[in-house]
Fold:
Amino acid sequence: MPSPVPSSLAKTPVTIVTGFLGAGKTTLIRHLMANAQGKRLAVLVNEFGSVGVDGEILKSCADENCPAENIIELANGCICCTVADDFIPTIETLLALKNKPDHILIETSGLALPKPLLKAFDWPAIRSKITVDGVIALADAEAVAKGLFAPESPQANGEAPEHDTPLAEVFEDQINCADIVLLTKSDLADEAQRQQARAVIESELARKLPIIEIAEGMIDPRVILGLGAAAEDGIDARPSHHDGHDDHEHEDFDTLALEIDEIAEPEKLAEAIRKLAREQHVLRVKGYVAVAGKPMRLLVQAVGERVRMQYDRPWGDTPRVSRLVVIAEHDHVDEKAIAGILGG
Structure:
């Protein structure tokens, strides 16, 4: 019987949390942080836009299991494109903490292709120190059921389309890189929609995977942490539309960071965001907004026409500046039109 690996030499497990824009990745990680079961956690957040929102949300939840210094945000870019400059140094920083984390969580950008990130774990500087415990893909039950990630319609001659939509390609790459798929926001979908979403996911999977329904990011951490998948060693079993290409983040999407005026009525802003989804092909809006007469800042999170708002914490000494990140399909980012609708 082989001798156990000394704890000082054991690889630190890393869980990659992937999923499309607004699928609930940050909410899941907040739940894991609050239910760490005695493990010291560290979190690396990769944002698509230049205005960090998810990292700040997570830092507001920091505690002794995952203090603020264990939460690092890399904004405005794909970490796979800057492995040597950003990803490797960040991982080394986390591993060098006085209280070394027992487990690292990586929240990818909602537009990231996870397979290139797996390849980054083969870099000599870190491959002996960390291992990918598992890749968890989140899929929004309602969005999947409504066909947001459906392939393009058949061509006029009745033949199947030559290409999937950009949305479908990202979705398929994310779930096919996974070890477990979480069907999120299941409380917002009815039974028929949940069954439809399951059927869509199963039809796109290259191999059979567990599909688990969750709401508000709540799941027993033991279900998704400690998988021991060593996913970096099984890359070939995780097919991608972009195999053989250098794409790390889908180029069919653009981001716009806006500052808007202080608002008086949140519902008017919500309606403006819904209008963006209908008229400007906007997929995602998130950020913080100042509301007249309110000492708390308003956290705005929108996926398509579904808008959620909540006051998260006082502005305090922070300038009352309203900043929103808008993500839309490429060539549909009309900055003047979007700013006009939002009041920026």
Summary: Confidence is low (pLDDT under 50) at residues 1-8, 153-162. The longest strand covers residues 130-140.
